[in-house]
Amino acid sequence: MRIQIPAHQQIPHPLQPNNPTVTSNPRYSPIDHHGSHHSPPISKDNYNTSAYHLQDQSHVLTHTSHLQQPVYPYHGDSSQMQNPQTTAHTTELSNSQYTGHHLSMQLNNSASGDNDIHHSGAGTLLDEDEHTLYGAIRSGRVAPQTVVDDWIEQYKTNREPAMLELIQFFISCSGCKGKVTPEMYSRLSHADIIRRMTEEFDEDSGEYPLIQSSPVWKRFRSNFVEFIQVLIRQCQYSIIYDQCMIDQVISLLTGLTDSQVRAFRHTSTLAAMKMMTALVDVALNVSINRDNTQRQYEAERSKVQNRRASDRLEVLMQRRQELEENMEEVKNMLVYIFKGVFVHRYRDSQAEIRTICMQEIGVWMRRYPAMFLDDSYLKYVGWTLYDRIGDVRLQCLRALQPLYEDPALINSLELFTSRFKSRLVDMTLDKETEVAVQAVKLVSCILK
User: Fold this and answer.
1) Is the preceding peptide bond at 402 cis, omega within 30 degrees of 0?
2) Is residue 84 within 8 Å of 32, Cβ to Cβ?
3) Nearest to residue 167, comparing CAs of 197, 124, 133, 129?
4) From CA 409, how far away is CA 369, in angstroms rounded?
5) Which residues pair with 12 in a beta bridge?
6) C-alpha angle with apex 66: 23 to 416, nearest 5 degrees?
7) Roughly what angle, to the nearest 10 degrees, separates helices 262-301 and 351-367?
8) Least confident of 18-32, 134-148, 410-424
9) How far apart are CA 248 and CA 101, in angstroms?
């Protein structure tokens, strides 16, 4: 994995009061001039004045799909970074942000319709779509597991057309009818295609698969998520380390999540967050295998010299080294997606995107507390307790509930509790009944 995240990489403070809205249509605009604070790293020494400090509890989230995107890897010191308070920046993404192959697509500007593919790109399938990844997931006639297995076989046989099809899958799942040709795939950069999509996407078309409410589209969302999870699970032993597939997918999704087109931003955020959850499971598996290998190595090394199998010792040592390298790569992927996607999208203008972020960070904290149950991650949940939308606040509480119910995790929550306990108590009187009920349950759990 070629992605490296420097330790000093700064991230924007989430609560910037009085952020200007610079466009009459926040879903679609080529240029934005938002500013954002950069928060200091949190520690016990600077806790009271750290990034946990809330400047404006009545903060109303504004569209931030075009916040300054971190460029990885970042070379040089933080003084080289532009001041976002005074520097206007566009949503054009630097070519240096992306590794891997390139793509482009042709977009058709058409009005949307629920049952007509010619208008929405999200209705009944055209004949040419039936044998694509999107067609298979959309129809639901083939299990995502089978679809993934077939794609992996194609990838092993001929990598380039397989990657082209996977890239097309994410574009099509957003409701875009653009087709990625092999020539476009090899010639144009991700930055170019994202810029073209921003300029050419039909802003009057508000319908796309993820916001459709019919049973067929609810099933599509479920299949879409399962496809991503199965893809990572099936590729976890070799393909995700080949510096091709995962690099390209993360690169594409990170760019799309910064798009001002809601359909691309929403779809790619869901994909990126579910991919990160799947990678958390991979990290756990690697960690377990590494620990088991270490125990076997220590047991073999502790044997008497004349009974020790030198060949086995060498194999175990090499295996341990390989697993340590894999663990480092997976952690780099997790940090990259978190800083490149989550840090910006957890305060997106669209409530459903913010909700996705809160749902998934709760999963990461439960499954991998060693990495994620830390104040540098918990603070995002704390800040979002002040969200103006009830469903988002509710999801924050649901993310916290299982953490407080686990006695083994209580100590890791002490700083978070001391900072946000008053807010949690206030939420027991929330105007949204379901939020108030969940807050009562959580506070009761804390007081036990």
Assistant:
1) no
2) no
3) 133
4) 8
5) 38
6) 115
7) 10
8) 18-32
9) 7
| pLDDT per residue as tens digits for the range 287-336 | 999 999 999 988 888 876 766 677 888 899 999 999 999 999 999 999 99
Q: What are phi and psi of 343, to 5 degrees?
A: -55, -30
Name the phi and psi angles at 12, rounded to 5: -70, 145
One-letter amino acid of 325: E
- Supply the DSSP symbol for 58: T
Summary count for the chain: helices (H), strands (E): 17, 2
CA distances, 321 to each of 237, 291, 301 (Å): 15, 12, 16
Integer Cα distance of 420 and 385 in angstroms = 9
Other C-beta atoms closer than 10 Å to the C-beta of 19 total 19
**φ, ψ for residue 179, nearest 5 deg:** -110, 130
Question: What fold does the segment set 373-448 form as a domain?
Answer: Leucine-rich Repeat Variant (1.25.10)
Residues 6+ apart with CB under 8 A from 30: 90, 91, 198, 199, 260
What CA dihedral angle connects 153, 159, 161 and 165, to 10 degrees? 70
Other CB atoms within a 10 A radius of the CB of residue 85 amount to 11
Extract the tokens encoding 255.
Answer: 């760019």
β-bridge partners, 89: 32
Tell me the CA end-to-end span of the chain in Å, nearest whole number: 45
The answer to whether 424 touches 385, Cβ cutoff 8 Å, is yes
Contact between 190 and 103 (Cβ < 8 Å)? yes
Question: Per-residue pLDDT for 172 more than 60?
Answer: yes
When computed from its CA atoms, the radius of gyration of the chain, rounded to whole angstroms, is 23
Interior angle at CA 347, CA 354 and CA 137, nearest 5 = 35
CA distance linking residue 286 with residue 59, whole number of Å: 41
CATH 1.25.10 positions along the chain are 373-448
Rounded mean pLDDT, 152-164: 95
